[in-house]
């Protein structure tokens, strides 16, 4: 039975497809409940990272406590904001586990999208009460009744009294608050039982150490409590507990049903991973909360400093980022072409791009990144199985019995007009059609089995461009499948460049080799000598292009003593040169290493 | 050596390739000359080895303004006193005036002897007008005349340029400058170029032409002493050599640059602002840049290497109290290796290949 205190608590999250208005609704709820004054209110309060604001996405989970008075009683509403991207699915699932309910925001002009659906099913798996909300009803193209029907038909949720709102103009926010109080169950759990608190996010603060975002399921935690992390087994003493308003506000204790934070001088997020359970050291719970799994990298790529003297800075920066990102893995590697660097593992391509961008922006590093690769399994003739994350390490073909590559189950939702285009794309990407269902008369959901390495390159962009942006995609790893794969090498000036090697499907190798050679010809600037570019499989050259030698690079004008002008031109040229990587005698621009991916 | 540069930012019309600081509106001419004279009179330095009046088109000035200006600098008695002159703005009267006030070097902008080409460049004159000016100047006793030419011009083939060159050689000027067209932003050519409407030589042809030109000039007694400059012995432009030799100079006028005591200054470019600032504050300096030793050394290298004689190792040492090989050893050896520069006695200089790829060389000395 919930206690009287618990009866006044609601823990919920908002799930939505990107751009359906999740963050805007969160802003309105914060504003409406007076959590922040107008002056403190900054657009999209919860997306604090510069990158999150720029890209309009949520990367890290965030939480805020709202106080809502419905006229009779005062309620504590704990809103947990979840990441929306498929790369961060695991974090979503942990955030959901901290809630009793979820608001499902659906855009009244667009209807259900692949990610809405995926997250919604995730919420149902966690037995969350789902409150559908139809957003953007102020737009002329809004069709709330159709969308309600779609939600009822596809997900099976009752939408008869779903609030019709516009988060942007602040319409219907009261109805949402009312629905939260009335529909979402309050938490329960014995406040005196042995402590069990779920870590649904954690981040490293240079002053406090790791700040764990927790949902207390059972028991009580306060300053001085000796705690134990059930997965890592490590013990600490709590230095502070508090709530989110939305900035940290210290409180005496957190009890079963509460959402808040705990600090305990923990030095590394690895020791307090998302999904782990906090219990008391002296009176531990018998079982941890269910569902913990470490985040597993799916995509690997080499990250190298453009200037080899920055190696240690890069290492420091990766270590610092890792403090906050348990999913990021890295280990040192060496490339003949690029020198010393790191092979880094990411949850997906977005995760990879974010890490790169943060390294370059926040740590001011100039990087060379190699083409991302998935993990291939190589079954050698002697029976040994290798997990290959770097194409360079592929053993000679004579030692390989066969290879396997990771496959995903992809679901794509698009208007029925684009089914042909989507199928064509999936076909090109070696997809295997599974089935297709109509969500409504004009919208279709397609299921495909597609190799992950086709997805991580430019699949999403291609999907968007071929469907005028209407299609949405979700996928999950479905295991490994035997496949005909070869290593495609690129030679510059006769020498293979290890960092440009890729594993490609045999059937596409020829076409890909040609495309890469052509692309590199465009990218590599002319130099003092002619540079042959070759694509090869083993010793067989399958494509060749030539970068002609540079004959002229002169700007010999007299600017009447204006030296600074000439100097600025030279400095610009020097900057361009600095962004080049010297490989043997050839200077290669950094973008070459990524550009080899983006060929058709 | 110390030079004085005087900028006249007016032109009759803007040539299609030009991005220098000049305007077509001459309504501020009187005020500008007044400000210019004030700036010159305020100079503490009165000793100059060279004076160079450049533009724009200095010879666009009215006789009255020209005389005012020349009178102001008369006392400086430089060894070399150049004025840039453009056909179409030059006449016997002005030439006489220049002669009278001690101008001893003319730099005449011709660009081409082909009237069709001149028209395409947006020049305001014909070859015939140039010939009249040139002959007048010679007959008045000007013994140091430069003719400015350009090559790699739109629709100009190799033979047409060689013809221009031969025409000019026949006139026996003491100095010839020959610049390969550079497409600069904010010019009419830039827009045409962007739209692919400029028919220029390809790189191979352009370089072939450049080297043919060097040989042809050499056969006729014109030695190349800088990437784009050729002179009969003893007629090298001392003023430009000041720029390239890390010597000091003062620039007066809108947008003019100065270099004194290891500090680079520049005046405000806008003509009205220049006039206002000089009137009200007695100077129009907009930027001041104190060179670090590192910058200074880099400039010494990339300016000096423009000249065929290159940089002198001992001069580097006495200027910076460091051995050039200590500072730039890696860069120099790498460039020698690539065949772009060479050691020549106590000098380091560009090779023929290095002159084609001089930016690659210069960039090496920047940090």
Q: Which characteristics define this entry?
A:
heterodimer; A: 600 residues; alpha+beta; Rossmann fold; Elongation Factor Tu (Ef-tu), domain 3; Alpha-Beta Plaits; eight-stranded antiparallel β-sheet; 13 helices; globular; B: 367 residues; alpha/beta; TIM Barrel; Arc Repressor Mutant, subunit A; 2 domains; nine-stranded mixed β-sheet; three-stranded antiparallel β-sheet; cell membrane (chain A); Elongation factor 4 (chain A); G_TR_CS (chain A)
How are the SSEs ordered, and which strands pair?
The complex is a heterodimer of chains A (600) and B (367).
Chain A: E1 9-16, H1 22-32, H2 50-55, E2 62-69, E3 74-81, H3 89-97, E4 101-107, H4 114-125, E5 129-135, H5 144-154, H6 173-183, E6 196-205, E7 209-218, E8 220-222, E9 226-229, E10 235-237, E11 240-244, E12 248-250, E13 253-255, E14 259-263, E15 277-280, E16 299-305, H7 311-324, E17 329-335, E18 339-346, H8 349-362, E19 367-369, E20 376-380, E21 385-388, E22 400-415, H9 419-428, E23 432-440, E24 443-451, H10 452-466, E25 472-483, E26 485-492, E27 495-496, E28 502-505, H11 506-523, E29 531-537, E30 540-547, H12 563-578, E31 580-583, E32 586-589, H13 591-595
Chain B: E1 2-8, H1 29-41, E2 50-55, H2 63-73, E3 80-85, H3 92-100, E4 105-111, H4 115-121, H5 127-139, E5 145-151, H6 158-171, E6 175-180, H7 188-194, H8 203-219, E7 223-226, E8 229-231, H9 238-244, E9 248-252, E10 257-260, E11 263-267, H10 271-281, E12 285-290, H11 293-304, E13 311-312, H12 313-320, H13 324-337, E14 341-344, E15 347-350, H14 352-356, H15 358-364
Parallel strand pairs in B: 1-2, 1-9, 2-3, 3-4, 4-5, 5-6
Antiparallel strand pairs in B: 6-8, 7-8, 10-11, 11-12, 13-15, 14-15
Helix pairs in contact in B: 1-2, 1-10, 2-3, 6-8
Family (chain B): Belongs to the anaerobic coproporphyrinogen-III oxidase family. HemW subfamily.
Keywords (chain B): 4Fe-4S, Chaperone, Cytoplasm, Heme, Iron, Iron-sulfur, Metal-binding, S-adenosyl-L-methionine
Pfam family, one (chain B): Radical_SAM
